[in-house]
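Listing S7. Sequence submitted for prediction.
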Amino acid sequence: MTLYKLSLRNARRQARDYLIYFVTVVLAAALLYSFNALVFSQEIITLSEGMNMLPMMIAMAGVVVVGVFGWLVAYATKFMLLRRGRELGTYLLIGLENRQVARLFFLENLAVGGGALALGTVLGGLLYQAFRAITLTLFGLSYHFAFGFSFPALGLTIVCFAFIYLFALHRSRRYIRRANICELIYFDRQNEGVVIRTGRKRRWIFTVSLVLGAVGACLLMEGDAIVGVIGAGSLILFLFGFFLSSASEVPAFFDRRPARKYRGRNLLVFRTLTSKLATMGVLMAVISMIFTATLISEGTGLVFRGLFTGRAADTACFDLFISIDDPERDHGPYLDYVEKNIPVEQSVQYAVYLSGSSAVRDYLTSSISYYYFNFYQDPVLRYSDYAALRLVAGYRPVELKEGQYLFHCMTYLEEPLREYGRSLQMGEFTLKPGDVHTEHLSQSGGITNGRGYILVVPDEAVEGLAVNHRTYAARTARPVSQEQYDALHGLHNDRLDWSGPVGHVDRITTRASEETEVASQTVLIVFPLYYLALALTMTAAAILTIQQFSESERYRRQFALLQKLGMDRREMAEALRVQFAVYYALPAVPPVLIGVPFILHLARLPEPGVMVGMSSPGVIAAASLVIFFLIYAVYILLAYTSLKRNVLPA
């Protein structure tokens, strides 16, 4: 048999025996190709003309992912060498030279990588369609499936994949060329050494690591950059200290409680795990760090998405909205342009008044987290203007009963305002509080319909009140285009040059521009975060699974012995399930304890009223956990099914 035929036979065997590794490399190739295809797609090139940061963000995400996949392939290749050291040593024993064995290992892994790249490119073409559909949907563009092949994307993917694979194989090839027969045959007995010896020192480090974890989590949520770096460093020390010392703490726990040690299958399960942890503590710490970064990336992406959509939802409730903060000026130039260029179906011009009192504002600031920005008095709106405004926004009509006033507010102010029972004195009118309405009404900015809330009063009650600013809102026959939006801003700049005191700024928003801004921010920030999180989860879960597969032979011998001692297959399967659960849960528990408080804290940082509903902190934290564990569970299920079939007696 020639060297090349032997390489191909071994490559086919590798793809079959190490299915997790092969599938992960295929997925890595698919992710690389799909992302590169997105970069070179004509739609993204067109969109990036209006987003200068888009190519740089995509390139940065790509570089990070190439580095992550490079580490995965390097680790998996070393694992292959570890498992096949005895076979390669045998080749030397029967007369092959080191360079021939090194070439054999290089060629067969190159064949596996080539097959994975080919399958990954095909799968990546389908994945690219999903990424393309998401991107176009975010920008409100129509998507049509059109299967295509991008040669620039394929070329870049081959370059990245070749760099990753050749670097990993070069290290293994260099080792084989220098190794002797004994080193290769006994290479599979090598493992990570015990860094900290069993005893008081390890238990002391275990305690200190827990303290560092608690301190690091608190510092990370402070918000200050320097303090955050110190907190991140403390968390890294916590993870390494925890996993390097936990192998001695588990036996110590059972030594103090001998009754639990011999209960059920505890001795079998935890003896196996502690022996494994004692030799792979550093790897467990690194994987736990990756999981922490993954969970934080997913949570941060959801927070940013909630922030973008929450802010835009309130300001995008009108097709066109123009506020002038100087009540002495009017909308003349704007309305002239609108009349000539933008078809309007319904519009309203109105004034936002000041009540002369700050009773409601003072009540809110003393009751909840609320800041009033530039409204030092309670903002007021005439009922007729409010009714017309609701009509423009497309909301159902509401009734203002005689002798009452209404509240219109953002959702986070609804409960305290319903409890507000004070009457409102406006000139000769004494008004009692009525209903509270919470539809979006552009209330999150300065010169808008109040800062979070506004009082709606009878028309005659506003006589004599000071005008804070004047506003125009319209529903248009079709979305306001970017060119029309830019033209309105050009008029705004012209007005700043010739009228009004310095510092007066008009506010111009359109539904279309807000939706485009959300799409741009999502593509720039949220999409790369999720792409990175997916790559990190795949990498860490694959390495954990590869490590578990490395114990297949030992598990097989162990369960064969247990069968001779009288344990039935059902009990062995249950013991294997418990071992799997604890093994895969260990590196995931610290990230949950670190990531969830961080995500909750991050989601509470934006201004009140933005992170509500499906973007509330609790929902975001829960969604981050679900996304993380869904991907993780796929690897766990695949690994358990395969290992159970291979190691349990028939």
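Caption to Listing S7: primary sequence and predicted structure tokens for the chain studied. Residues 497-503 have pLDDT under 50 and may be disordered. The two ends are 35 Å apart (CA to CA).
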